[in-house]
Prior knowledge:
2 domains; six-stranded parallel sheet; alpha/beta; 13 strands
Amino acid sequence: xxxxxxxxxxxxxxxxxxxxxxxxxxxxxxxxxxxxxxxxxxxxxxxxxxxxxxxxxxxxxxxxxxxxxxxxxxxxxxxxxxxxxxxxxxxxxxxxxxxxxxxxxxxxxxxxxxxxxxxxxxxxxxxxxxxxxxxxxxxxxxxxxxxxxxxxxxxxxxxxxxxxxxxxxxxxxxxxxxxxxxxxxxxxxxxxxxxxxxxxxxxxxxxxxxxxxxxxxxxxxxxxxxxxxxxxxxxxxxxxxxxxxxxxxxxxxxxxxxxxxxxxxxxxxxxxxxxxxxxxxxxxxxxxxxxxxxxxxxxxxxxxxxxxxxxxxxxxxxxxxxxxxxxxxxxx
Length: 332
């Protein structure tokens, strides 16, 4: 039996069921992301009669109430609802409230969640019985969305991040997994080839022009890296070293740097020795989880795909320098 019906189809079906003495229960909602609270609510609603009808807010209806929703389309939401054993029928409505739908279907029982007082339930005067079921604490679609965002969202530059970025005078970068995607390509003569992102390079050039020094420290050795850094005017290039902290300390001493004046980006746990000693630490979006959990900022971009440029832009913006470059190029 098809549970998803148009309003007209449902009206005819319910008319027959009422003649057979069935008690019709009606409830409505967005049911965007089905959770345990919904299941318990719908089970209790069904216990109040024989046939449970769910008026489902269409996508158009939801957007009038919650501009950023729905997460799932009306067809997907209707399909999920219809698959539930306690739900007998599902029908869509486009208005902000189900008043016209209730008037059309003429159910016997009207049910809403405990966040609604009986006197405020839309359509209460059109039915014989009205119930406001106890609110199931700890369950909500909004809560689920917030949990997902907290767990998986990328850290955005906040005021604290911007304040840290303002103080930066020196940027230290890992190479593989930061300036490149981390892939290693070797030719037949064991030459190591690397793919660099042009925008990353331009970001570094703008930093350098702004008086911010840059160094790269990597455990591998590549002529390609040597060439690329020469093109960008970066002279602090340290290759083939596993003692990254030693190089870091030498740079700090050479340039007489304070912790808060240094920013660094790394992607793996080997980089934590440096990342934990700088004022503003960062990781690409695809960095190791242990690194991302410990840095000040995780980029939206992946390594080799603009992660370094994103960090450069944050530093330049925080110092009010990016607009200078925008104006300069705009007026060329």
